[in-house]
Write a structure and sequence with these properties.
GO molecular function (chains A, B): carbohydrate binding; peptide-N4-(N-acetyl-beta-glucosaminyl)asparagine amidase activity
Domain Glycosyl hydrolase family (chains A, B): 288-744
Largest sheet of chain A: 9 strands, antiparallel
Strand content of chain A: 15-25%
Structural class of chain A: alpha+beta
Low-confidence stretches of chain A: 1-20
CATH superfamily of the largest domain in chain A: GH92 mannosidase domain
Mean pLDDT of chain A: 95
Oligomer: homodimer
Strand order of the largest sheet of chain A: 5-6-7-8-17-12-11-10-15
Number of strands of chain A: 35
Cofactor (chains A, B): Ca(2+)
Largest interface: A-B, 52 and 51 residues
CATH class of the largest domain in chain A: Alpha Beta
Subunit structure (chains A, B): Monomer.
CATH topology of the largest domain in chain A: GH92 mannosidase fold
Shape of chain A: globular
Number of domains of chain A: 2
Number of helices of chain A: 22
Keywords (chains A, B): Calcium, Hydrolase
């Protein structure tokens, strides 16, 4: 029923002339990668860090779908194996693990008006996507759909058959679990409104509004609203013919509010008639949504906007040029880069306005971007380090954003979503992100304010510590004891150790020696958890004894596990990146460490789908003579888990973190210690990689990496850094920037 | 459990000092009259023709209530026999037969916050009401409640016990069957929003928004929203703890929209602490609701506003002064006057803005009042004639409003409600209302536009005739045949005859002789329905034969009846007020007419609760020597059906029509032919009645009526009109205004 056509066919379909003899990087991007196997990416039209995304929504309304958003824990508007399309959702998340966003559902139908998505959805064919563009053909209606986007405005074009046709905007459904919307007709061709979003990861108070203005290019013959009428009881029910049904409002033109409301536009279309819909959004106000729409799209055709979107993507992708490697490797690489550049995304309107973090004020970001969607427990591991290297001006604005959040809300972000602290996952991950940036020369922010913020979460005791809720135990005992069966106590503490290590480095840099000493000492508390008996970390009880019974395998496949969050003791036991030497000593020396780490892989305890053990393969390179294991494991993992297919990401992309792992692994640089400006090196996938640098931050304009394994010589024999042989497989950011050139020999 | 205390006790309760040695007319008003026995009045605080009313809402939430709004066809926010109070509803209808309005439910509670009205409601005691004021004590919470009002703003004061206390605004429930509301926190002490109202008499498209601004006098300790979460299914349901419950939003402060939403304000009150709530409304916008609130209440205390409300009522009631009569008679009289002055009510804001009739525009009423709530099938029989006599400047604005509705919408109103034509009941009742006013000298409106409007509904053929949907039959046959079992065909036609008689008179007055001839001929078509066999009117089929079988008693007690709406053939057969002479001839002469009419009363076929036969008692006075029957029947009906008790109105007050029947009957003037400026006279209840007239319209400043029956002399022997003996018991408006004085002798 459904067939994804190649880019070539999409071009043949004649929508835009994308003819170029020259290589275009956007052509390597495969937007369907990660759109099944719980990768939770989507093939929608989006710009780098764009507020808007226009995504085919196919996760509700039909039992023929393999996955239904309400039938299980479900977090993406699209799955490639589903077949029932119910419209385009506007503003979506890519690579998250909880249901959220994915609303303002825009559908086109032909024939008799039906506003029930269980009826009006359609299977589709001729599906294709390129950066900034998506298209399909609705088989039920023979309607051709296309979507493109600007930063804050979605543009959708429908090509209709002859006859009665409809454009529907459904505000009652969406991926989000929040309900409630208001809409208002502005004119024959414009409606505006607001919808509540939120409860990310079922946090009931993390809710926020989205505002929109929607314009259709052609005035309809008729239009109206609908609202599902909650079922009445008793005699009342007998008299109301709309009871328990979708009521159509054909004459009413003012505000309509409700749990399940929508608007329809009805046309008498000619064969091939095109109607375009533009949806501007804002998180500040309806007026700003309108201004965003106007300033971003006025005077521009669908083709103009699509072309501009492609140019923006091309420019962003071109920050890294690769040579050598197969077509598939290039596709994997640029697709990973594409996925890495989606979040965090901008929050401010064209006029700079954005909603205060956890407050009611409207603030202004001035000349800077205000970012949102900080899934920091994920992205602090590699995404921000990558951005600091390749897009430092963006990372700079993200750091500014984080410090501003502290000023607005009193806390640095943990998992921030459109001005809400969702408190998802654990730890204090903004600390390593900011410290890492600082050490890489990204210092155009209020450094002392940032330190103040970090110091607050590291030292505040009692229930008032939003970021470290178990700080009393942590400070008193040096670890977090298990107080409730699934309180993830060890995972919490491990995150604090990493953060405190970064904070100690930062304190040192700011001349705060005693603070530095204190935090460094705290960062070593992980030793409390080390169990000689198992050779792993192991939960501890408040009385200081280990949890018993204990099974280090428990927690595989996301099963609940005392002390550990989303993983087993194996997935966490090497997660002490800042003190590998100390952990090695605990474990009985290098060989025991290597054996234990290798056995994680050999015995299938490594989880390629989640973050805690994501840097494990790189730990071998701390030990002379064992670096080949890093190269072997990384190559194997890349080859096994990343592909150009819809299941080509190993599990949830985690707002680009999984993609970024592949990306940096393919370049051959990995930042395995969050907050510490160092990389572990591995054999790159390409003959030559040229990364454009920003002289303002990096002191030079490019970094060149050369030399991939050839033939039987799989492992690095020699590394030449800036013309000098490097005595290690680890390198500091400063060394790298000074050198500007790495050469690998095999 | 519940006890209504007298005014004296209310005064003793010490809330306001209402001490006066002088007689006050407001003290005669008994706002509880008509609040049970389906009278559908209410004891809420309201001004004459006020947009706002603040009404104790006691028709939902408890099985201990005798009547539940959803368990049956129910049309009033309050019933005196109910016991469970769930708050004050803002903006209500008085005396209507369909569920509508009665929303913006404001409640006060103490103790733990609970936002479910099934839990938070309370029984009450110490209930009392005077014009512009209502009070009770909530037994569950020991909260003392008081409400007063301006034209567009409700003011409620709660006196709390010590402890945790709450003010709740429920936008999810109401008497209206429409749902959907949006609210937004403006500040600690102010919220604003809009709620959808409508579907009066289950007309699905007759919907419209109300806008509000609500201010509390004291900033709360905490506040938030609630929204009922529609039940989820499957796995989704397991994760959302608010699934199928009222979710509290404690941190969210922006727009909240939904089917069932509300807001709470939480306080830590001292014993006896008073908190006041002011609710401004508008049918135009939130901004106008705020302006209404500010301009009407700024700088005024609760006591000021209550006092002003009382003064306004006192001044209005004082347009008619009565002497003699018992206390009970005075109470019945002024209560009837009170109920007659509630609808129609003003629609425009303080700045003159109002919503276009059946359109999206906002218009301005300038220096005039724009009225709404025209239940014309009821009120065209006496309310507008009464207003023309006693409050002609208001009737003048109502006529202007009706003509403006034609200009805005293309049709005169039938049953207009807040800018919507609900098309409830039948006929073309605006015609007699406007014509009657015209003939009484109320001519400051676009007379030719009015005639154009009337001519349109009287002559338009086909489906496009909104007011006379069966005009094709009516014009072709001279009557409306029965085409569907319960199509009320005879009732429709009878209304058209009355309207066409009025229209003929109007055409004559405007010099349109041929139109006049045509409409006069049409007005006599009732003869088609006369059945010699039964001596009644009887439905006719399209082929010209009478409906058979036929039972002239069918239709009693609102049972369905072919051809007749809400009544039997008996209730309609004398409803040819404009041609009593012709009907008499049809019936075989005076004696047969008198016998038949008398038997309606004697055999219990007269329905004192509904309009079609409401003027029957007055028809005797067309016949010399039979006038005593009018006096006898009117006296008996007044005595039997009107009292000072809650069941003191015989059935639905029909926006004052029933009350107005009593009122005019007690004065001794009744306008039994709608559209014809004449009155039938009967013995007044009082020794002396002085009605203030408006010299601008009436040429004099008062009308005096003297002489009530004394002792055994029950029936009028002689009528002296302006010093001259009157040879009839009927009088024209012109005669009456010229004379200014009627004296009755017995």
């Amino acid at each position: 029923m459904k067939r994804r056509v190649g880019l070539f066919l999409a071009v043949v379909l004649g929508l835009t002339m994308v003819a170029s003899a020259q290589e275009r990087l956007v052509d390597y991007v495969q937007p369907f990668v990660g759109t099944t196997n719980f990768g939770t990416t989507n093939p929608g039209a989006v710009l780098p860090h764009g507020m808007m995304s226009v995504v085919p929504f196919n996760v509700m309304g039909s039992e023929e779908n393999r996955f239904d958003k309400d039938a299980r824990w479900w977090s993406t508007p699209y799955d490639h194996t589903n077949t029932y399309f119910t419209g385009f959702s506007h503003v979506n998340l890519s690579g998250v693990g909880c249901p959220e966003m994915g609303s303002l559902l825009l559908m086109a139908t032909s024939g008799k008006l039906d506003v029930d998505y269980r009826n009006y959805g359609s299977t589709y064919t001729d599906e294709a996507a390129t950066p900034g563009y998506y298209t399909n053909r609705l088989t039920k209606y023979n309607i051709f759909t296309e979507a493109t986007t600007t930063l804050r405005t979605g543009i959708t074009r429908f090509t209709f058959p002859k006859g009665e046709s409809h454009i529907l905007l459904n505000l009652g459904e969406g991926l989000t679990n929040e309900t409630g919307a208001m809409l208002r007709r502005v004119s024959d061709t414009e409606i505006e409104g607001t919808k509540l979003l939120g409860t990310f990861c079922y946090n009931p108070q993390a809710v926020f509004p989205i505002y929109f203005v929607m314009q259709v290019s052609t005035a309809p013959n008729s239009q109206g609203y609908w609202k599902y009428q909650r079922p009445m009881k008793g005699v009342e029910a007998e008299w109301d013919k709309d009871n328990g049904q979708y009521k159509l409002y054909t004459k009413y033109t003012k505000e309509l509010a409700g749990d399940d409301v929508g608007a329809f536009f009805t046309y008498d279309t000619e064969e091939g008639e095109q109607i375009e819909v533009r949806m501007g959004v804002s998180f500040v106000s309806i007026e700003n949504a309108r201004e965003n729409l106007q300033r971003e799209t006025e005077g521009q055709s669908f083709a103009d906007i699509r072309k501009r979107a492609e140019e923006i993507w091309e420019a962003d992708l071109a920050r890294i040029q690769v040579e050598g490697g197969t077509l598939e490797q290039k596709q994997i690489f640029y697709t990973a880069l594409y996925h890495t550049l989606i979040h965090p995304n901008i929050l401010q309107d064209v006029n700079g306005a954005y909603p205060q973090m956890e407050g009611g004020k409207i603030l202004n970001s001035g000349v800077h971007n205000r970012y949102t969607v900080f899934s920091l427990w994920d992205t602090y591991r590699n995404v921000h380090q990558f951005l600091s290297l390749v897009y430092p001006e963006r990372q700079m604005d993200m750091v500014r954003t984080m410090v501003a959040m502290y000023e607005e809300h009193g806390w640095l972000p943990k998992w921030e979503l459109y001005g809400r602290e969702t408190l998802t996952m654990e730890g204090d991950p903004a600390i390593p992100v900011i410290v890492d940036s600082y050490f890489k020369g990204l210092r155009d922010f209020d450094v002392h304010k940032a330190y103040e913020a970090m110091y607050k979460s590291a030292t505040t005791v009692g229930k008032d510590n939003l970021l470290r809720p178990d700080n009393d135990d942590y400070l008193a005992l040096g670890y977090v004891p298990l107080r409730e069966k699934y309180d993830n106590s060890v995972s919490h503490a491990l995150e604090y150790y990493v953060a405190d290590n970064a904070l100690a480095l930062f304190a040192d840099a700011l001349g705060k020696k005693s603070d530095a000493k204190r935090f460094r000492a705290q960062s070593l508390g992980y030793k409390n958890y080390y169990s000689k008996e198992y050779g792993t970390l192991r939960p501890k009880l408040p009385n200081g004894t280990f949890l018993a019974p204990f099974n280090p395998k428990q927690g595989e496949n996301f099963e609940p596990n005392p002390g550990f969050h989303e993983g087993s003791a194996y997935n966490y036991s090497f997660f002490v990146p800042h003190d590998i030497a100390g952990l090695t000593k605990l474990m009985g020396g290098k060989q025991k460490f290597i054996n234990a780490l290798q056995s994680i892989f050999d015995k299938g305890h490594y989880d390629p789908t989640n973050e805690p053990n994501i840097a494990y393969p790189y730990l071998f390179s701390y030990f002379r003579g064992e670096e080949w294991r890093t190269q072997k494991m990384v190559t194997e993992l890349l080859s096994k888990h990343f592909s150009t297919q819809p299941d080509g990401i190993p599990g949830n992309d985690d707002t680009g973190t999984m993609s970024c792992w592949a990306l940096m692994s393919m370049i051959g640089l990995y930042p395995d210690v969050p907050g510490v400006p160092e990389y572990t090196l591995t054999a790159p996938t390409f003959d030559r990689v040229v990364i454009k640098l920003n002289p303002k931050y990096h002191g030079r304009d490019q970094l060149v990496i050369e030399g991939k394994p050839i033939g039987d010589n799989q492992y690095i024999k020699e590394i030449i850094l800036g013309g000098k042989k490097l005595n290690s497989h680890r390198v500091t950011h400063e060394q790298l920037m000074k050198a500007g050139y790495i050469q690998y020999k095999y």
